Amino acid sequence: MFQPPSPIYPVAGIRTIEARVAPLAQPSLMERAGRAAAEEAVRLTQDRAGQVLIVCGPGNNGGDGLVMARRLLQAGRAVTVAFAEDPRTLPPDAKAAFTAWRAAGGETVSDFPGAPANGWALVVDALFGIGLRRPVEGRYARWIDTMNAQQAPRLAIDIPSGLDADTGAILGTVFQATATLTFIALKPGLLTLDGPDCAGTVHVHRLDIDPAAWVSPPGFEIRPAMMREFLQPRRQNTHKGSYGDVGIIGGAPGMTGAALLAGRAALKLGSGRVYVGLVDDHALPVDNTQPELMLKRPEQVLEQASVLALGPGLGTSAAALALLERAVRSDRPLLLDADALNLLAETPHLKAQVAAREAPTVLTPHPGEAGRLLGIGTAVVQADRVASALELSTRFRADVVIKGGGSVLATTTGQWFINTTGHPGMASAGMGDVLTGLIASLLAQGWPARSALLAAVHLHGAAADRLAREGIGPIGLTASEVAEAARGVFNGWIVKAARGR
Ligand SMILES: NC(=O)C1=CN([C@@H]2O[C@H](COP(=O)(O)OP(=O)(O)OC[C@H]3O[C@@H](n4cnc5c(N)ncnc54)[C@H](O)[C@@H]3O)[C@@H](O)[C@H]2O)[C@@H](O)CC1
Ligand SMILES: Nc1ncnc2c1ncn2[C@@H]1O[C@H](COP(=O)(O)OP(=O)(O)O)[C@@H](O)[C@H]1O
Ligand SMILES: [K+]
To answer: Which ipTM score applies to this complex?
Structure first.
């Protein structure tokens, strides 16, 4: 069976849920969070005797740490709590947690303690959670660096301190967790930009709340279960005309491979026919490695394909722009990638035409291309990947993915998604071209644009993950290998979906 999709809430959503639930919650949410954290600590230290170090900060994240400390102490564990604030300045729940900790016989140290001779069994970061507001500096920056230097498993409570829960940006310095126990729901910052490098293995503890019952989830982690209705075995009574004609247009001189990679990926995911229109007049008339591809003039492809994908190796020549102009005016589903996006960014009247299209449009920029489309720098895009994807989707009335670790998707329905498959071995030339081919293939097979985009992005990463598990990569993985593996993963999904019905 497929796992159900997990909702993702930015800080504002979590705060609203907390405000609605907290007045009714018995035991309090902080008691539940601290107890869950203590249980997680017991699991993580099953085969590690010795002391647990819990480093507590000035807010409710520190309060969670103090409840956790009390629970562990009561369970007979040796605990050291580092806490440098005046307890009278704590928010009410955290103050109560401090009082209960002292009443249970617990003590705190206000300087970072030296490690016991055999090291800490576990180092717990309860410094800052979703209330982090500015870069960490001074004492707490030094404490984070010291925690990171310990030879022990490192557990972050709710979110690694120093990570922006909404964006995944590092604010000053960041706790390097081996595991993160996050409360109520996932936060975007755990899944994109620097989040995955800092959070380790992420577990969600819902604190016995169903967040969706209180606030409708604004975002989701992508899971194959979302695509179940389209993951159907094929009917016997079908033929190649039933599975669409993908048209890939690109491959300017020196960049033929990009268009061929996209074409091969489309073929391996099951399109009936794949046409490749190479902009290079001197290109070979056949792909000898994949002779099933039909190499044609780009103008022919524009006429014959049922779905158009422009961009892989397209270049930015006048001829490329003319092809893009025609494709945008077509009444077929259209995917724009790479140089098609760069041309679009420079051509104001085309932007308006894309937004006015009746057929679906899919845009697949990496952060640099997204910046050009929005007229802002790459750093501004990366500073808030979710907001940037939503803005692109609204401006172009398109389904959009901003690629890169923790790809962020925004759809014309106003929803957003984060993809968690894939790995840095995919940071190699041609990977984006394969993604283009996968999306175009599903579009040609009749999938709605939103589902085609979600499925292909997830599949692309899942294929790379499977290869890495089999010892192919992660480093040195090639785009062609991913296209090949995507076929196997996709057929596996169809079998799984049929079993679950
Ligand atoms: N509010 C609730 O109902 C619940 C909150 N919980 C915990 O509470 C956390 C949120 O608590 P808070 O809102 O108190 O926020 P935090 O505990 O994350 O931090 C806020 C405190 O840190 C200070 N601060 C922020 N950035 C700083 C910086 N760079 N340097 C120094 N000080 C800085 C703030 O002035 C404030 O005192 C969650 O992450 C979670 O761990 C859980 O107990 C579950 C329930
Ligand atoms: N660190 C990473 N983790 C996960 N996926 C990645 C990572 N780096 C790159 N990718 C994926 O590989 C693909 C690269 O696409 P792109 O940047 O357009 O490259 P290309 O030059 O191959 O067109 C995207 O789908 C991207 O999300
Ligand atoms: K934390």
So the answer is: 0.93
